[in-house]
Structures are given as C-alpha cells and as structure tokens.
Input
Amino acid sequence: MPHVSRRPGMGSIVHSSGATFRVWAPFASRAAVVGSFNNWSARDQDQLSAEGNGFWSADIADAKADDEYRYEFENGSTFTRIDPYAQAVSSSSGNSIIYDSSAYAWKSKFIPPSANELVIYELHVGTFNAPKTSRKRRRHGTFAEAEAKLDYLVDLGVNAIEVLPIHEFPGDLSWGYNPAHLFAVESAYGGPDAFKSLIDSAHSKGIAVILDVVYNHLGPDDCGVWQFDGWSENGMGGIYFFQDERSETPWTKSGRPDYGRDEVRQYIRDNALMWLKEYRIDGLRFDSVSHIRNIVGANDSPSDDIPEGWSLLKWVVEEANRLHPKKYTIAEDLNGNEIITDPQSANGLGFDTQWDKAFADTVRGALIAIEDESRDVPALQTAIERCFSGNAFARVIYTESHDEADKDGGRVPKDIAPKRAASESACRRAILGAALTLTAPGIPMLLQGQEILERDYFDAGRPIDWSLQEKNAGVLQAFRDLIALRTNAGGATRGLTGQQTSILHLNNDSKVIAYLRSDRGGKNDDVVVAANFKNESYSEYEIDVPASGLWHVRFNSNNKQYAEGFGDSAVKRYKAATRSDGSKSYTIKLELGPYSLVILSQGG
Output
C-alpha cells in the first residue's frame, strides 16, 4: 500500500520517479487510480492513501506523461471519475491524460500593453478560422487554425485577443460557457500544447491573450465534479456545489459552486492562477461576476447576495494582482456598478476593468433606430462620458460582443438593414459605431468579423465568412485606420489614450455630438471627434475646438475609399477662428457627411 505523497500539488504531477496523484474526495471510503499504465485495474500499489483531511494521494512509479487514467472510488458502490485538476482529457466524457506541464518550450517573452493602449479583438476558436466543409458549416476550428490567422490581426492593428472559454466542454461545438472540466483545455481545439503555441505565437507578434473563464456555474452536461465522491444532499451536486437554493443559476438547475467551502475556493483560485502562470495568459475575463456575488445577478436584491462569492472574487483578484501585477482582471458584471472596479482598499472587488453593457445598448440603439428622430444624442453623451472608479479605462466598450451578436440580437449591419446588410446606410452606421467605440474613453473591443461586416449572428456552428474580407475591403481599411489612431501609431492622436474627455458640442436636432479627448493636453495631444447621427450632410457645421491654428483631418468616415457611394472630401485641414461674439473660444466649420465621424488633431 503506497504512503501519503509528500509532493505538493493537485491532480497528476509528473516527476522523474513516475507521477504523483492527489485528489479531494472526503466521502469516499477507498480511492485508487486506474489507467493505461495498469490495464485499468487497480493494484495494491495504485491505491491512494488517505491524508486525513479528505484528500488522498500516492506516488505511482509506472505512471508517465500521456498515460490516460481515472480515479476509482468506493462509496456504497465502485465508480470512476475524471481528475478535476486534469489539464488534458480525451473528451469531456472520456479519460484524464497525464500532462507534463513543464514540457512545452516557450519561445517568446512578453509584457502586455498598458490599459490605455489596449484594443481587444474577441475571438472564438471554433469559428474564427474554421473551414466551411458543408452547407451546414459545422466543422469547428482549432488553435492551430487560429494561430495561422494571427498575421491578419497584426495587419488589422489590434494588440489583444480575448479568447472565449476553452475549458473542456461537451461535444465539439460550443461557445464554451458550459465547462465540463475547468482545468482541461478543450480537446477538439487541440489541447494544452496547441493552446500554448497559439499564445506563444501571439506574443511573438505583439498580441496579448486574454482568456474568458467561467466560475459562476459548472456544467450542466458531462460535469466532471458532479457528485464527485458519491455524496450529495437531496440529489444535488455534491461536494463542489451549494446544496440549497444558491445552487441554481440561469444556466443550470444545480450548478453554482460552493464558494464557502475551502477546497472549492482553492480549486477556483488554482485554476485562475494556472492560466496566468503556466499558460502565460495576459488577463482573465471573469464571466458573469454578478452571478458569483448574487443569486439572481442583480444590484437591487441584497437579500440574494452571496457573501462567500464576493469574498472569493476579492481573494482571486488580490492573488492575481499580487503575483501578476502587469496582467489584467476583467469583470463581466453588466450592472454598471463601480464597486466592481473600486480598489479593495475602498471595499471594492479591485478588478482592473469591467464590461460596460450600457455603452453597447446606447450606441446600438442610436445606430439601428429606423428614424433619425429616434436617435438620442444626449444619451450618447452619457455613454461617452461614463467613467468607473475615476478611471477612463476601468470599462471595456463595444457595440458587438458574442452576447449582443447572438441570434436574439444580431450583428449591427444586419439589425440596420436585415435584407441589405452591406447597403450604404448599414455600412455608414456600422463604421460610425466602430469609430465611436475606438474614440470614446474606455478599452475598445471588437467582435471577430465586425471589421469585415460579418452579417451572420454569432453561433458556435457559424464560422466567419472570410470572403467578406475582399468584398468589404474598404470597411476593413476604415477599421485599420481607426485602430492606428486609437493606439497613436502615427504619434498625432495621443489624446485617445488619455484620461480626459469633455463634450464640445451637442445638438439633438441636427444629431451631432463632438468631444475632446486628451492625455496631458496641448498641440501634440488634444484630439477632437465629431459624429453625425443623421442622414444629412453639413457643409459648414460649426463646433468649438480647444486651440487656435490648424486642425488636421486624421480620419473621415465619409470617404469613398471605405465604400462605394461615400463622399470625396478634399478638406484635409481646418483653421480655427476666434468666435465673433468676442469670447476667447475657437471654432472650425466642419464638412460632415451623413452618418459619419471625423477625427482631428494638431501637430505634425
């Protein structure tokens, strides 16, 4: 009978003398490991020894990397389970695979861009670069295929990808928000080394990798920790889950982890830190934080608060910030609650930034409204000026995400013109929305395919139609130009990376809004943005600017190079004039096309 292992760690740990196994199963009366190394029949030397605290462990000399295995338990009957800490599995319902986490040879060293420079591209591995192999377009993509498309993203100019969840999930087609095994990298995508290769390659090209993680629920299908050691109350989930009404979530009847149990808290903490350390992920986006801290995911139901979930989030964020201070913690809470990004010293959760759904809802509403009179420009002002926790970059802003673009929402061009998504009007407004996202304060995020006017709603079985890259080449160029300005690639738009925003002009009748973005202020800094949300051209629309002198047009979306039917303005610069009323303010008279946005700055 093996002795309790003295080696630290959970799951299977490869070493020179075989492998160590450690598992938490407090209600099991016996535990063993069975696998390809013992013909799936536990010998005496494969029995795990009880450590006396609900954990079982042993060193198994015959076990080695790439062997398949399961834990075998007794609790009234004999049954087997996949290792909760397994980083590789044969499938969601198959076997654990011993993975040597030290074997991958990293090539790149990388420090992610600062928050004020980030431009995020939301990417779903299964549909980003998947071939269309049939009329139903059901062939999923892989990490290798996503890696092959990275040069396209370099050319686009984005410097971060946010990868939808790659925890092992049931089947091959999924958004990823139904995790079966938290630590295992999705086998259909290529497994852990293929994921590391994608990250390594992205880093070599200057692209940070942010990963969506799901801790608000587990399962519901093929959930590896469901009634893990055979124990449960009232037929519920067992040791990893709440055993009362707190277990129910919008996605599972009984799937919310028990955030108050030390071993479950450690399980989630270990998972988050694994991605940051071992996989060198540059940031984590925590899915539906609202459903970790509250049963129904709301701000206005304190009786439904989950204090254990709140304290878990604080602990994981604190640990991530302490051990990996240059990496990002991003919350999807969607309640517009500043306490999510307030520092922990001020009783906040301390996330670096959070998704701002109100921005998406407001801007999309202005873009897809049928009548110009329905476009609410004062609401746009609120959306532009919103700031969490005194930090312009404590919010992620977008008009399309995997949620907004699903079959119930859809892509912006399709919502504007369901039967003519590539029409001039849809094209103008899609670029207008992207331009607002890339010039307003916040961390801008684009959804894969947005830059080529992808029309299909987002779904795990609908790959991006890359033929649109050529058909909508002008739109793609507009996105390239906007991203270059947002990241100050040319050195003339530093204000777009700054904390300061002020509204220069707002007229709800003409549907025009103009605002100033600045970092430190001054000639080589200030950026003026003017947006027209009306299907009407203005030849001399007067707005204030903060200084005299020449203001150069850095971008004009009403440009025929972006789409046929757009304008052909010859105006490249404007000279600011002193207002005739004797005030010390300066004005310019802009040429504004219908549904268009102009970006101006001074300097070289």
